[in-house]
Here is the input.
Amino acid sequence: MSNQATPPVPDPPPDSPPERAAPEAIRAIPVRHPGRWLAAGGVAVLAAMFAHVLLTNEAFQWSFVFENLFTPPILRGVRTVVVITLLAMAIGITLGIVVAMMRLSANPLLSGAAWFYTWFFRAVPRIVLLVLFGNLGILWDRLEFGLPFDRQIGALFGIQDFQARIFGFDARTVLTGFVAGLLGLALSEAAYMAEIVRAGILSVDPGQSEAAAALGLSRPQTLRRVVLPQAMRAIIPPTGNELIALLKDTALLAYVPVTNELWFQTQAIGARTFRIFPMLVAACMWYLFLTSVLMVLQNFVERYFARGYGAARDRARVRLRSFTRGQGGA
Amino acid sequence: MSNQATPPVPDPPPDSPPERAAPEAIRAIPVRHPGRWLAAGGVAVLAAMFAHVLLTNEAFQWSFVFENLFTPPILRGVRTVVVITLLAMAIGITLGIVVAMMRLSANPLLSGAAWFYTWFFRAVPRIVLLVLFGNLGILWDRLEFGLPFDRQIGALFGIQDFQARIFGFDARTVLTGFVAGLLGLALSEAAYMAEIVRAGILSVDPGQSEAAAALGLSRPQTLRRVVLPQAMRAIIPPTGNELIALLKDTALLAYVPVTNELWFQTQAIGARTFRIFPMLVAACMWYLFLTSVLMVLQNFVERYFARGYGAARDRARVRLRSFTRGQGGA
Amino acid sequence: MTGAAGDYLVRIEQVHKSFGHTPVLNGVDLTVRPGEVTVVLGPSGSGKSTLLRCVNHLEKINAGRIWVDGELIGYRERRGKLYELREREVAAQRRAIGMVFQQFNLFPHMTVLENVMEAPVRLRQGSKSAIRDRAMALLDRVGLADKVDSYPAHISGGQQQRVAIARALAMRPKLMLFDEPTSALDPELVGEVLDVMKGLAQDGMTMIVVTHEIGFAREVGDALIFMDEGRIVEAGPPREVLANPQHERTKSFLAKVL
Amino acid sequence: MTGAAGDYLVRIEQVHKSFGHTPVLNGVDLTVRPGEVTVVLGPSGSGKSTLLRCVNHLEKINAGRIWVDGELIGYRERRGKLYELREREVAAQRRAIGMVFQQFNLFPHMTVLENVMEAPVRLRQGSKSAIRDRAMALLDRVGLADKVDSYPAHISGGQQQRVAIARALAMRPKLMLFDEPTSALDPELVGEVLDVMKGLAQDGMTMIVVTHEIGFAREVGDALIFMDEGRIVEAGPPREVLANPQHERTKSFLAKVL
Amino acid sequence: GCGNGDDNNNDNDNGDTPTIEADPDLAELVPDDIAADGQLSVGVDATYPPNEYLAEDGQTVEGFDVDLFDAVAAKLGLTVEWSPAPFGAIIPGVESGEYEVGVSSFTINEERLTEVDMVSYFNAGTQWAAPAGEPVDPDNACGLRIAVQRDTVQVDDITERSEQCEADGESAITIEQFQGQDLATASVVSGQNDAMLADSPVSAYAVAQTDGALELVGEIYDAAPYGYVVNQDQSQLAEALQAGLQAIIDDGTYLDILTEWGVEGGAIDDPAVNP
Ligand SMILES: Nc1ncnc2c1ncn2[C@@H]1O[C@H](COP(=O)(O)OP(=O)(O)OP(=O)(O)O)[C@@H](O)[C@H]1O
Ligand SMILES: Nc1ncnc2c1ncn2[C@@H]1O[C@H](COP(=O)(O)OP(=O)(O)OP(=O)(O)O)[C@@H](O)[C@H]1O
Ligand SMILES: [Mg+2]
Ligand SMILES: [Mg+2]
Here is the structure.
């Protein structure tokens, strides 16, 4: 049942046949809902208590919060958060598409490997993953690229200590906290994105691929021109959620550690000045701000995408109606 | 295009009219896909390298891992993880339903408060929230329940230091790490559950409520008997995901700190023995195990729910068809 | 609480309804006597569904009055003032009005029998066993005695619509509203639903039926109204209107549909 | 590469097809001469759609052979052995066969014109401007010259289906397959699509049409086949079959539909 | 102090500390509101072996800090409730009243003294450690990668050294800050970092625990006292703790405990409030 306010009665269109004047609009006295207002009152009191604590409890030290909210280390922390979020998302999306394609492949080895990848990275908590990546230096002191199993292959042919490595790095200069953290987040994100991309592709009506196939388009053409553009509709909204989740999870980088990251920095100020609580509040405020910006953006993007389809359909309905009506009346 | 293997030609049903014998089944030589096998080969080599590192790199110290995987503190940690996950989820679902109802209420104060609640708890990273809750003791040294704003009301009537508190606790005995962590997780979960419940309710075809209203059912009856049971279909799958996410996020409790939690315990062993990496591996193994169990359960639950509807529809299709066919042929 | 009802079961007077700024009903007048079947025709968007939905207050009208069985729908008029009815009172009014939707709207999580029993049981219209007996009798009447334990998803569209009719009848309504009850059905299944509706009409049920089934209108209808742009542009006995439409719009519409 | 084609455009020989262990086609034989319109009738589930989908290899058959314009569909036969065709070769065969689906399956993210141009452009069937001219001509032919820049969601179902026909024609097929092209349409919109199809038939297009539109079958069809349980149970000139069905199943089906 | 890591393995028998008898005179000194429940609630960051860490059972906090403070409390007729907390949250927790005392190897310094009262009980210095056979000169660490635990005094120490390097025109020190000392130590063992610096007992313990992978380098320097952290409004409690500490120093329990943990080198004989 609709419970909108009663709008005024519209005037009849000027070209309509003469008829009785529209009667008075209904202005009824609405039903009272005391229970609802009681609940609202309770919520209002709770809100007032909350505000009271915020304003009067000394632990908040608001002046200290605002003094520190825009100091250079904090701003640098914010920048790091944004940079890592964007980088990790970019890598995550790219790798995620590859993994999704592997997962959808008919080859059991490829789809098995993709399954294992998504399983592992989605089953282990991100904090554990990140600490693990922060300690990967324990495994190797050099990272090298080249012929795999070179030593073993050499041994097979009787060559001692055969090496076919093309280039390598000192692991610790490469696997800095920043790189380890970024890598951890990006690989983990790729697993989530792979599932999203896969679900998006599966969500496209199979009739679309069939129509493309029936026209004689090849499978890659079908994927690129017909399936992926439509899968985007199912991919974009959860990707927005992922981006927000990723931004929030950059706080976990403090434990890798990535020291110039926002959460690390706010805590460091808190510990140095012994004012933990105000800096916790400052961290909350920054994250609230950053995620809210993303949420607003997401809203816009989703509305944009909805406009392309759903709303358009409604518009079409209206047009279709006026079209038939026109025919019916001419 | 289906690419299943060619099944044998079925025998014609015995009561069918006599006709030409079925021709030989098609057994065509399939097309080769060398590119696909090359990619698979690459993946196989990578997998072998991964296994090789796991088995030969000394940093893993597998014997140490297995020695410690089932020691009492670790098992206690696992129990804590499970208990907190279930408790936080139970509170989260209950509170989430309340918040969702508030959000859907026509009263702007209720729906505004619910919006603010979900906004705050979804916009702040869980790690920040949990550390904040761990430090809530800084705000009050006592938690008290009673008439709100009692002191202010007293002052209004000229009574100095009027107190109408019914009962109170020493904050530090109540807000232990365990309680603070549980509370933080549960309140945060409630925000996510509220959105899920709301989306679930909105996903039910409005025609259902209209049909119920047209039958003369009241709004609470409609909600309880018609809308909620159907909303469950949309609520259950994301709730499964939430449960898995919650289980993983119990690792964040280590920073509250909740000391008898799995991630804290594995790290504590690492800290005491300086064998960080093996204990990281142990943590991964436990989380992989726990989340995999939940994933399997989720799969069952989802399939069960799918059986109730989607599959049933297919069955109905088949029945319907044989029904019409029967009529067509009789 | 009796309004100026006379011997009409339904009286619709100068009803206006708009969604936002889009007028949908522009002063509709209609009366239906007890036992009469009124068929509503009209192009898509002409406001047929909205009119039906206003009759049982699923939509609030902006101006005008609707009485069913002498009761003013949705409001109470006292000392020249209109008061909205409480939800409970609206629900009570709706019980006297059965409604059948284009999309059936059966409750998918209940069996056929549970669908029919749900409202009477919740609204305590007798003992459960009495309600069950009555539900079984109704299902038998619509030819579904053997499907009582099936779920809606397991039966055909025509069967679902027949269950929806039985469900509405279970509340012993004085008036039945049908909103294109057959247009979501495969052509082969339309007949079985129309047959049930014919039976109802023969048993004296008062009905307002939105449909494009001209045959049904001709055979069963006592009155036919043609709507366009939220107005009733033509009304009369079905045979006359169908054979000899007066209005241009009716003519061109019938030319397309017949 | 010519098989035993004779003067048939389509030759279907003893085709068997099952999904898992459910047989769906049980030995179908059918031939269609160039320019002929073959109408396929039959109850739901009788395998009509599956038969069409086998003709352009959207489904793989389990036994039998299908030739279109002398080419064996989906396979190459050499020295008594069958080889699957590569994807590219199957795509080439499909280009000679246009298909129109019940659900239109237009590409919703492309305009009407882009829908029609997509396949010729991707498959480089001429310069872009030549393709555009041809697409415009086709859209004009189906009466949609003024809708070229609309998106599918913005036009009616009947218009969408006409676009789908133009899109299939843009590949200059030798054979057109229609799978219940009007059954997802509102009754008022059916006519416009059938008109386009009639025009095509008059221009000499070879067509296999699954439909329940008996009028179309009678008026346009050169042959009518009635399928049931994966078999062709009756075939002949439409007027004869419709007026005087021989088989019990045909009779009872026609009794319900007519 | 030189570490003796083997000791802690057979030292779970904390049972010998409570045998210390309460001294009624000293117990008098304890403020009534604290004496009332007979318990001291203590905030501790249990990730700092051998000073304070979780025992093998995963629940008990142990370490020489723990044994020592248990003894002091026993002298005052109190028991101790150890509440694990993040290091940085302990002093604010004491200020807010969440904890009555903070015992977690807090080095006494100016900044801390402006916030809280501190009772000195042990002398620790900073000690460097590096992989065995790859000695590092603490006074010339420019360009190296050094691991420290976040929020400790060593962070300020190494930051100053890095700034000095840059002032001298040499390349800065890469400072890796870790959540816990365990991660910092592990990073040096694995070769990710070149050296670490920490409180002297901690470095000694790390060297002992890592089976010769690490060795101590250089001398202990910047020796400064550890202090118990007490709220500035509770100076009476601070006095009581000081008296209790003096009592166990005088009766020899103090040195026994330190010796047992192999950190007797840091023993003091003049505990003081806010030295
Ligand atoms: N809830 C709504 N909000 C806004 N506009 C609405 C709503 N319901 C209906 N309308 C509009 O009111 C007009 C009349 O709608 P209605 O459904 O009554 O027509 P109808 O005659 O039943 O048409 P149809 O044959 O398509 O069912 C249409 O233009 C429609 O877009
Ligand atoms: N992909 C598939 N997998 C399994 N079974 C299928 C599949 N496609 C069709 N079938 C089954 O094959 C049988 C024939 O289906 P088909 O769609 O060819 O019938 P039809 O004559 O076109 O019916 P309709 O009039 O409903 O379109 C049906 O029983 C159907 O359930
Ligand atoms: Mg309608
Ligand atoms: Mg079909």
About this structure: The longest strand of chain A covers residues 165-170. Residues 1-18, 310-330 of chain A have pLDDT under 50 and may be disordered. Chain A touches chain B through 61 residues (CB under 8 Å).
